[in-house]
Amino acid sequence: MAIRLGSTVINCTGLDTMTRFWGAALGLEPASGTDGFRLLRGSHVNLSLQRSSAPVSARDQMHLDLYTDDQQHEVERLLGLGARFVRHVEDDPVDDWVVLADPEGNLFCVCAKPADEVRDARARATEP
Question: Considering the domain 7-54 in this protein, what is its CATH number?
Fold first, then answer.
């Protein structure tokens, strides 16, 4: 493949606060950065934080979906790290997700997805 996703970038005003939150939330380590940008690296994903002059003021154009086998545990863990509960959506019997906001108000979802479902979807995506 000639192109791949290298990192998702979140704009933020508090670079240190967001580094602590997202680093702990996803098990990422700060790898490099400047006063206005920080790359967090993990074994399977990178996340970048970019300093913004203004806080989040409207619904984001995109957000992260985090998949887990233990939604309740992860939601409680993320709330303990500083996330804020927004809503729990379980209208569809196939989909169940909790919308949270990070310390600066960026929305993200914690989706109840069994590990085998995620593995199967990943395998289908890499088939020729």
Answer: 3.30.720.120
Q: Does the pLDDT of residue 49 top 90, yes or no?
A: yes
pLDDT of residue 125: 52
Neighbour-count burial for 86-124, b at 16+ CB within 10 Å, e otherwise: eeeeeeeeeeebbebbbbbebbbbbbbbeeeeeeeeeee
Among 105, 84, 79, 109, residue whose Cα is nearest residue 12: 105
Classify domain 62-128 by CATH number.
Answer: 3.10.180.10
* Domain boundaries along the sequence of the chain: 7-54, 62-128
pLDDT at 47: 94
Radius of gyration of the chain (CA): 15
Sign for the pseudo-dihedral over CA of 57, 59, 64, 65: positive
Report the helix count and the strand count for the chain, using DSSP H and E: 3, 8
Q: Is the pTM of this model over 0.70?
A: yes
For the stretch 66-97, pLDDT in tens is: 999 999 999 999 999 999 999 998 877 678 89
Give the number of other Cβ atoms within 10 Å of residue 62's Cβ: 9
